[in-house]
Specification:
By secondary structure, this protein is α+β, with helices and mostly antiparallel strands. The protein contains ten helices and 13 strands.
Length: 343
């Protein structure tokens, strides 16, 4: 992980200055300088890791980041999208942005390390602590070379990536209106440390989630014939939804629906509940796929519940967890990143 951060922050600087035709010797110089920052980087990442905060609650995280930017003498605007930050290095056009997310997940950390999360039920399980560290590291190196930059670098510290559409909020507030290109990184545990991966076109799928409430009529478990059992209806619903993928989707068009919640309440073992609540996420590599999946899943959920004498109410959670469209890389910028990575 530590080597990965070093390579990534070096990559930030090299990528942004590659347009000037840097020599291999200069690139090697940047890598060597990045290595000298390892202790500083490790300290930042571990401090951030211990104090995770959820979307739009990143108040202490934002304060820590602003203090780091102050120490580096980098000006910034705050707040941006409530808890986010937009910092700048250089001046004039073009404007290129580097982006990190800053929020954590509602997951309890079980790892036994000295810098584990100090907040029960919350952790940086998606690597955003590393992303913030990379961006601060790149900022430190870029600030030293501010006079060499032909344009402006915006540093985007985005809140609420984990479901709150913080990026969309930053766009709507106008923080990216002058940006000609934007680059973001994400750690990937399945890839070797120190490697850089990208591709032109779609690289990550669209994502959304929903809750569904199945209502029946509860009663004693020894007399199921007197009930309208929502548990059986819910179980059938879980299975039926998989036909959207297995029987209605072209195998070459990647899509997925995963039911991740099934709650029957805290009833006694001999009681059939009135209500069952389920939750899921669904994803597709195209917007059109998401639209079709949503339509078909609604039809299947309501009709399946009805077939068992129940009703199904679907909450698409559009306010709490807005729909995220596919991530589509600009072909020219993807080629540019690949060229810098190869060097």
């Amino acid at each position: 992980m530590e080597r990965c951060k070093l390579v990534q922050l070096f990559f930030c600087v090299a990528m942004l200055q590659a347009v000037r035709g840097l020599s291999d010797a200069r690139l090697a110089e940047y890598m060597q300088e990045s290595s000298k920052e390892q202790d500083w980087l490790v300290g930042i990442r571990r401090e951030l890791h211990q104090w995770p905060e959820l979307m739009y609650e990143e108040h202490n995280t934002s304060l820590f980041l602003r203090k780091a930017l102050d120490d580096l003498d980098i000006p910034y605007k705050f707040p941006a999208a409530k808890t986010g930050i937009v910092a700048t290095i250089g001046k004039g056009d073009p404007v290129v942005a580097l982006r990190t997310d800053i929020d954590a997940l509602p997951i309890h950390e079980e790892s036994d390390v000295p810098f584990r999360s100090k907040i029960d039920g919350k952790s940086h399980a998606c690597g955003h602590d590393s992303h913030m560290t990379m961006l601060l590291g790149g900022a430190k190196l870029l600030k030293k070379r501010e006079s060499e930059l032909k344009g402006t670098v915006k540093l985007i510290f985005q809140p609420a990536e984990e479901g709150g559409a913080g990026g969309e909020r930053m766009v709507k507030e106008g923080h990216l209106k002058d940006v000609k290109a934007i680059f973001g990184f994400h750690v990937w545990p399945a890839s070797p440390s120190g490697s850089v991966l990208t591709k032109a076109g779609t690289i990550m799928g669209a994502a959304a989630q929903f809750n569904v409430t199945v209502r029946g009529r509860g009663g004693h478990a020894a007399m199921p014939h007197t009930t309208v059992d929502p548990v059986v209806a819910g179980a059938a619903l879980v299975t039926a939804l998989q036909t959207v993928i297995a029987r209605e989707t072209d195998p070459l068009h990647s899509q997925v629906v995963s039911m991740t919640r099934f709650n029957t309440g805290e009833n006694a073992y001999n009681v059939i509940p009135d209500v069952v609540k389920l939750g899921a996420t669904y994803r597709s590599l195209t917007h059109e796929g998401m639209v079709r999946m949503k339509k078909r899943m609604y039809e299947i959920m309501t009709s399946t519940a009805a077939a068992y004498g129940c009703s199904a109410e679907v909450d698409w959670m559009e306010e709490a967890h807005p729909y995220y469209p596919p991530t589509v890389n600009d072909p020219a910028l993807a080629a540019f990143v690949k060229n810098v990575g190869v060097r």
